[in-house]
Amino acid sequence: MNLVIANTNATAFAVSRALNCTDRTEDGYYTNDTMSIIVAHVAPDMVAPNTLQDYTGGSDFTKELPFVPTKHLYHVKDKKAAERIFALMRQADEVVFASNGGCIEQGMFDMLCQSAKVGRKRSRMWLTSLTNKAINHAYRYRTGGRGLYRLARAGNAMMACDNLFEINFGGTLAQAYGKGAFPLRRPDTSILWTLCELVDSRKKFRQGDKQYTFGMTVEYAGQHVKLCPANIWDDESVVLNRVSQLRNLMGGTLSAYVIDCSDVESQELVELFTHSTLQTEAMRQLGFLPAKTNALANALYEKGFISSPLTSVAELPKRMKDSLTKRYPGAKHFPYEDNSVCRHSHGIITTGRNPIFLSSDEEWLYGFIAKRVEQVFSQKRTERELVLCVPVANLELYGSAIVPDDFYIPEGSEIEVNVTGVSHSSFSEKYPGNVVGADFLETIYEYFEMEAGDDYPVCEYADMGLALQRLIDNGFVESILGELFPTEKARLLMALTRNTDFGCVGTVMSQIGDMEKTVWDGGTLAILHKYEDWLSTQIITLITDTAIFCAKPMAHRCPKCGQVTLTEYPMVISCAHCNFSLPKQFRGYDFTAKDIDQLLTHRYTSPIYGLKGRKGRKYCDALVLDARFRLTSAPSEASILS
């Protein structure tokens, strides 16, 4: 028996109909007559990574910063529903995950399988749409093996990094401003910094001096070409003098040289929507914020009207050519990619189903996508371009024009052209105006464009539109008539993080890019440890900032470097000479002055009662500084006198 697990009810229903699983089991799952396939649905967060409350026994705060658990754990939320799924897993020969999600969803499915503690073959159905044809293709060509394992590992590591950031960054600022004062996710701070710096740079804008140039229009065989020099001038009188000379040639002929006359790719070529371009264009043309676009696109996908919106590629596989050509005759000229290139996702298209029972906003977005699909399949992909060079007045003027497909002149030919017009113009760098939301979102997506895993579906960590939406919802950014303005709350956050790398777009890009490359190369654990070390350094910089927290020098010597350079802060004791730091709370226990003195002097403590375990129960243990000068429990064989 094959068990197919979907992460939404709509997906489970569509898969069951495509696989002819129209019967129901006692637990309400879909199956067929022979019980060879069972289709089940589980909530996306049935198994989720542990939160701060899980690590601290229910507390919303921790002074143990930077907080890096020795092992990243996860827990089952709905145990009754999980037990029913686990029972099916024990009976199954193969467990199949059906979803249009990326590595995060695959990682959560992997945690579900690990919680079941049953060794069964695992595979994945890559759902590009919820049509019967797409579902049957995904089931027939489901994938598994090491690649799927690495994808899940990368997803688990991504969730661990996001969890660490929320606990440490949010917990640090909560000590000074209260819980929930700065509800941010990993890429949010860098996007906010980019927006603030862009706004500030535009405030400092100074209009440049004017520059001048001229142009000439010529005609040959009914084709008009506008020519311009490669030079520009600061002196308008020079340009006016040139123009007066050229006007004497009006109505006459000049010799021109054909540089090129060949087919080129159309300059106004449009592509199918991807996740990022759909958000950007819907924001620009429909006025929809990213969260609204995501919700509407997901609703259209689950109703079977469009393909999966979680895609980063605009190409289509060859296997779709015949079906699309029946609906769009111009689709036969579309440059399809090999099926192996678009295995996991492809450009957003309509499925051909009659779009009924849609809300007004869904109708707007569906029509927007359908119009783009028709435009892509009906557009002319190549055009013939004529490029000319005309020597005149000790200058060479260059220009090009689009000509009919049957128009051809050999390259290097000398022809006679008629002068039909002369003009001059001036230009200068103009004030760019306020930051337009759609343009800013497009720029951010260009910054965060990743090279690894291009054809995998888009995950939440790569959804920059969702990050911008969080900044708007949490009061860091105001969106007024499509333009973005950082608030005073954003300026405060910039001041607080000025000495850290949280606002560096390049750093966040590098971290996400390194993690995505593990899908192909492995090495997830090393990348995760690298991020933990980086985050610890940034949090120590933040909690030792005297502009936020008070500080008091200490007389003790640093146990790592031996210098008298220790400073006590509300949450940590830090050395100004080396990178040593000692949290003032460990496993829910606040250190006393005696405990701190023992750790700094002898590198161990007397047995301490009040440490909390994973389930919140108190226990007694002695603590030591290990070889890396980090706090840990004393070895059981150690002899420590109380």
Automatic annotation (TrEMBL):
GO biological process: DNA topological change
Keywords noted in UniProt: DNA-binding, Isomerase, Topoisomerase
InterPro entries registered for this protein in UniProt: Topo_IA_cen, Topo_IA_cen_sub1, Topo_IA_cen_sub2, Topo_IA_cen_sub3, Topo_IA_core_domain, Topo_IA_DNA-bd_dom
Domain DNA topoisomerase type IA DNA-binding: 264-494
Cross-referenced SMART domains: TOP1Ac
Superkingdom classification of source: Bacteria
Annotated GO MF terms: DNA binding; DNA topoisomerase activity
Name used for this protein in its record: Type IA DNA topoisomerase
Source organism of the structure: Paramuribaculum intestinale
